[in-house]
């Protein structure tokens, strides 16, 4: 029974770590997009204001498009939402990792807290989630099979949800294959 509890706590800790990485990466993606749009808005607005060489109307229109895109998609708010989710998962990770002798009651409370946090999450970007799973496995030295994420899915992991894609596992390239699998 104690071994089952220990394994359940380890699986929960793994899932919380993966969620933390996922939300860090989503926040970073939205922050970067927001900064590039602000840069484009400022650059276009400045060119429109001081434009003597080219038609300033084009730069003004570009500034309006950049600003409208940032406003409508609320990139800074999305980044803030992922920051808050990261912090909540981080607090849960601290609670799990600072408990030296977890009990079934601890586990029950932690699972309830995880479900509560997950209820506030936006829909998952599956390729990004699979990549975060791979990251946690590598960081923890787990030599299990990693999810195979193709070039297209990797390039679009922050843009397309890929909800209908099953990312098949691939063997760890650093681990020798056993004769049974050959």
| Major sheet characteristics | 2 strands, antiparallel
Radius of gyration: 22 Å
Query: Could you tell me the strand content as a percent range?
Result: under 5%
* Count of alpha and pi helical runs: 6
Termini separation? 36 Å
Low-confidence stretches: 176-182
- Helical fraction equals 55-70%
- Mean pLDDT across every amino acid position: 87
| Sequence of secondary-structure elements | HHHHHEHE
Number of strands: 2
Shape: elongated
Q: Largest sheet, order of strands side by side?
A: 1-2
Look at the helices and sheets and give the structural class: mainly alpha
Structural account:
- The protein has 182 residues and is an all-alpha fold.
- It is 68% helix and 2% strand.
- The protein contains six helices and two strands, in the order H-H-H-H-H-E-H-E.
- It has a two-stranded antiparallel ribbon.
- It is elongated.
- The model is unreliable at 176-182 (pLDDT under 50).
């Amino acid at each position: 029974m104690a071994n089952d509890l220990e394994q359940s706590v380890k699986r929960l800790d793994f899932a919380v770590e993966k969620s933390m990485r996922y939300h860090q990466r989503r926040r970073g993606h939205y922050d970067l997009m927001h900064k590039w749009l602000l840069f484009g808005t400022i650059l276009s607005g400045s060119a429109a204001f001081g434009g003597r060489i080219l038609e300033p109307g084009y730069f003004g229109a570009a500034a309006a498009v950049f600003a409208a895109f940032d406003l409508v998609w609320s990139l800074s708010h999305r980044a803030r939402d992922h920051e808050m989710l990261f912090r909540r998962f981080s607090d849960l990770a601290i609670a799990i990792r600072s408990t030296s002798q977890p009990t079934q009651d601890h586990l029950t409370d932690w699972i309830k807290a995880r479900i509560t946090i997950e209820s506030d999450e936006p829909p998952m970007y599956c390729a990004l989630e699979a990549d975060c799973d791979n990251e946690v496995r590598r960081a923890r030295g787990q030599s299990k099979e990693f999810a195979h994420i193709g070039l297209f899915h990797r390039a679009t992991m922050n843009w397309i949800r890929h909800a209908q894609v099953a990312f098949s596992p691939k063997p760890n390239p650093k681990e020798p294959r056993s004769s049974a699998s050959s």
